[in-house]
Amino acid sequence: MTKQIIQSICLIIVISLLAFSWATIENITFIKTVDAKATKATKALFDNLKRNAGKQVLFGQEDALAYGVEWKEWNKSRSDIKDVCGKHPSLVGWEMSKLGQGPLNIDSVSFKHMRGWIKEIYKIGGVNTISWHMDNFVTGSDSWDVGEKVVTTILPGGKHHAAYKAKLDLFADYLKSLKVGFIFQKPIPIIFRPFHEHTGGWFWWGRPHCTAEEYKTLWHFTVDYLKNEKQVHNLLYCYSTDVFKDEADYMEFYPGDDYVDILGLDDYHDLSVKGKSEDLVRRLRLLVEMAEQRGKVPAFSETGQEAIPDEKWWTERLLNPIKSDPVASRIAYLMVWRNARKNHHYGPYPNHPSTRNFLTFSKDNWLVFEGRIPDLYRIHR
What we know:
About 35% of the residues lie in helices and about 15% in strands. It is globular, with a radius of gyration of 21 Å. The chain is an alpha/beta fold. It has one domain: TIM Barrel. Strands 1-2-3-6-7-8-9-10 form an 8-stranded parallel beta barrel. A two-stranded antiparallel sheet has the order 4-5.
């Protein structure tokens, strides 16, 4: 092949790439996400989650592929959910706590293997969401250490601000490593859910331990630093409270529409033995209405009942009350917590008493598991 032919081929490739890049920009500007420079796939995910809400609900679980009840196999595509119903969940949650402090996170999950599972979920068309139980920057203990005021110390000008930025630097590097593709690698879209359940008091960023303005300032700095300073453009940002009384309660710490893509709710209380389904439905109605008014995605971002003592919990407590309500049913996804062991699990596992009911639950067309996930990463307009 002559030098001239090679140059011509290279020129054609460059022109094609430029044309593709321009078309990509032109096609996604009408999708308004927090990050105006978000990748096309990230914007498509936001748009499709919003458009599909009310039609289908993605079912998810924390750490689903990393381990289950009485097993941990790093190299197998396995989950307790798949062992029970034959399909992985369509959404999986992951945790960043202990990032930069060793090879494993707070739940003994390898960050290296997590990267592979995130890619696997993306390749089947599923969604990955990340939370971060950050250690206490003042004491060095975990996120449940609430004895000291922390938020003010990590804001700009605070004593531990540099340490907080260093953590965000590690996080940005990890996010940039989440790519797929052979020649042209593309970043995997991620839903990031920082400083969650702040309406409670069990984390150092919770309502009793900082003011609304401090929380908002921390959120603003975090988002701006990741997208502007670190050039991370594959994130959607999820604001998720614990249980709330009304719209004013939910919105007290809200960082603003320019800083939030997804409105989430973490609610274990209403699905506990003492909880009431009508309270859950009422909260989800409010959540959906607030999200739709603002052009955001509504999500049931974390829930479950530990050990699932009710054999019909999946249909009677979770599915039927939400699905039967015309407003509450318009959530985009719901995620149950992890399966750590027999006395601490939130999904079924083989031979658990709720397994038969979960099979009925998983076959409901309203819910989405592996194998029937819509194309979430392509713009359909």
